Please model this.
Amino acid sequence: FLTKPLDNKKLRKAINFGINKKSIISEIHKNQFNLAKGILPPGMPGYNPKREPYPYNETLARNYIMESGYGKGRPPIEIWSASKSEAAQKELNEIKSQLNNIGIETTLHYETNWPSFLSMVRDNKLPIHIHAWYADFPDPENFLGALFHSKSKYNYLAYHNPEVDHLLDKARAERDYLKRMEMYRKIEDIILDDAPIVPMVNHLFQMVYQPYVRGIEVSAL
Model:
């Protein structure tokens, strides 16, 4: 988030409070997704079911915009997507409308060639972009370390918080499982307070079985 004006933490918080994620999930996606309340998804070790850092709140969003110094006359903020599907366009148009409602003007852009899109993401050329992340192994390191450690090649946000780096390094070396999970929850708290992302949805996987099938267990992966 080195790209101005998103280097301003209060503006990033305003964006988080200004997007009505529940409405987007129910109206556009017909409840085919779960609301993401943080970075770690349900089923992942360290997930906190009580977390809800940024509920939709227009008043708080406008207050943060005022405190950030962001005002009219600023150039619109670009939002990029690698998908131009009907659902993706509906979602982005709704996000654009909601942000405009709180005083943040945006423009929508699509780059459907994935290598080109990823190249722009890696070069930090996209102020805001839509991105999905799937775990390779069931550990919070695969989300928090992979995406937010300043030295990670998957840190597509140019996010750098020395405290987060230090805690991630400590958590990797910690052998006590419960202490590790406590550390990752603290790390997630710090990252969410910095507001480098807007957690939107967790994907749902639906399984259909014949009535005589019993005893199948499906992991979170």
Notes: Residues 177-194 form the longest helix (18 residues). The chain has eight helices and five strands.
